[in-house]
Amino acid sequence: MGRGEEEPRWIEMSEISNSNEGGITPGEKYHDLGTKYPDAPIPREKDDVIIRRAVLKDLTGVSTILNWMSDGDLVIIEMSELMKRETELHAAINKIKDFVELDIHGSVLQLGKTRLLILPPTFETTEEKYA
């Protein structure tokens, strides 16, 4: 910001201005970057972990989750919509569980009634009992 300016100046960029995606308006307080840029490139460094979250609505989303896991990402999956279809739910869970536990030696943990936490093999899980 320049001196005497209260807000940052907005610079119009041709590739953003000509597209309908993004929809950022000057003065907007909150940007849901996951909605505006769902496939944004994320720079990777050695031993880094990216936390991904997904809503699994049907079996078509399983391949994306498996790709994230093969990259070493930590994934939180919301499955409340899929839980209405028991056969499809079991197929999705079995596919994810087999890949994670047998192929990459990671862990699948249940978070509440509708979520799974999938950990890459670089994470350890322990079970502690609290009094």
CATH superfamily of the domain at 42-119: SepF-like protein
In CATH's first tier, which class of the domain at 42-119 applies? Answer: Alpha Beta
Distance between the termini: 54 Å
Radius of gyration: 20 Å
Residue runs with pLDDT of under 50 for 5 or more positions? 14-20
Please summarize the sheet with the most strands. 4 strands, mixed
Number of strands: 4
What's the helix count? 4
CATH architecture of the domain at 42-119: 2-Layer Sandwich
What coarse outline follows from CA principal-axis ratios? extended
What can you see in these coordinates?
The protein has 131 residues and is an alpha+beta fold. The chain has a domain at 42-119: Translation Initiation Factor IF3. It contains four helices and four strands. It has helices spanning 14-17, 33-36, 62-70, 86-103; strands spanning 51-55, 74-78, 107-111, 115-119. It has a four-stranded mixed beta sheet with strand order 1-2-4-3. A hairpin with a 3-residue loop joins strand 3 (107-111) and strand 4 (115-119). It is extended. The model is unreliable at 14-20 (pLDDT under 50).
Q: Which labels suit this protein?
A:
4 strands, alpha+beta, 131 residues, 4 helices, Cell division protein SepF, single chain, SepF-like_sf, 4-stranded mixed sheet, extended, Translation Initiation Factor IF3
